[in-house]
Design a protein that fits this description.
4-stranded mixed β-sheet; Spore Coat Polysaccharide Biosynthesis Protein SpsA, Chain A; 5-stranded mixed β-sheet; 8 helices; alpha/beta; 2 domains; globular; 37% helix
Length: 287
Amino acid sequence: MRLLAVVVLYHPGKDLAGNINSYLSQADRLLLWDNTPGGGKEQLPLSGVTHPERLEYRGCGRNVGIGTALNDAVAYAREHGYTHLLTLDQDSYFLPGVFRDYTAAIRSYGEEKRVIFSVNYFIKSQQAPFYPVADRVDEVSSAMTSGTVYPVGLFEELGVFMEELFVWGIDCEYCWRAARKGVRTVCFKNILLQHDLGYQKKKHRLLGKEVFPNEYPPARTYYNVRNGMVLHRLYPESLNLKAHLRYHLYKRIVFVLLYEKQKIAKWKALWDGYRDGKRGKLGERGQ
């Protein structure tokens, strides 16, 4: 397995180097695609990276969305003969030795198989795993971007990531598209990636129940609503629209009112996302 990794950056924090070190030793090369507007390699907190010779900085000085960044990595993998592509978020990391176990598990399962490989997620804000931890490999409906490994040959067969979504749902859409072609997404339930969901900051009590608002900024709020509506039309068997809107629109209206900052900007994003979702609009917001 020749493994190319890509991590998409957007105003990364000071923990970036430590996160990278948790998987870099097992990757042949890591692309740092910088979506930070006006960013540059010299501005990245990379001091302490253990294998700097394996890094390659890429980007164009503005935020082009996740899909474009991932598709650049797909093209790079094809051009340079990599067999597998690992996609990552900047905030995710593996505990010591876990990523080595992950690559060994892929080889043992069959790296040549026509499947998408994914991990279990330890959700840091909730201090709990996404799936119950078990020593088995199970088929799942989809995987998050971070920690997923794609055989590069799949992109020839299935096409590349759906750039028009810009941010939310790119990972799910690819897995759902693959499933229609008989390509399974499998999860190693005992391989944990330290990860968080969105921008959750603080738990609250509402009507006697504990709630944990997902405090996405306005831009991400827009894509969450819009893309869910678009993807429901494309994959009605995979995305429950009522459940999606209940979480990303209706509850969010209340949570923004009660707990979040930037209320007007977020309410406008919710409305714009719903309106553009009804229209089937794709691409970057406002264009």
